[in-house]
Amino acid sequence: MGVPRRAGDPAELRKSLKPLLEKRRRARINASLRQLKGLILPLLGRESSHYSKLEKADILEMTVRFLRELPASYRAAPMTRGALRAGQPSPPLLGSPIQCFHL
User: Fold this and answer.
1) Are 12 and 5 contacting, i.e. CB atoms less than 8 angstroms apart?
2) What b/e readout covers 2-27, taking b as 16+ CB neighbours within 10 angstroms?
3) How far does CA 67 lie from the centroid of its chain?
4) Which interval of the chain is the signal sequence (predicted)?
């Protein structure tokens, strides 16, 4: 038989918070996927109403395919933080996927 745990035991607290944290994490993922779907479908020339039940994997695959098929001139155009702050016109996309996350 196990040793009884105290009410304030950190292990018990983690155990009770885990489902709540997981629910929040899934909600964030789903919200981001909805936004991505709303962005990618118009770029692909598809109407959202016909694609209301896309699976998460489908949304991600469509996005990857779209990004891979971009002309090299769009992918290679560098963008700097300074240009964004100064309000200067910027290229449509950043030079590399990593730069997308460093704005």
Assistant:
1) yes
2) eeeeeeeeeeeeeeeeeeeeeeeeee
3) 14
4) none
SS3 33: helix
pLDDT tens digits, residue range 38-91? 999 998 888 877 777 889 999 999 999 999 998 877 766 665 555 444 554 444
CA 94 to chain centre: 16
Which single residue is written with the structure tokens 């629910």? 23
State the alpha helices, DSSP H only, in the chain. 10-43, 56-68, 72-76, 81-86, 97-100
Q: What gap in Å lies between CA 62 and CA 36, rounded to an integer?
A: 10
Q: Which amino acid is at 98?
A: I
Q: What is the pTM of this model?
A: 0.58
CB neighbourhood size of 79 (10 A): 18
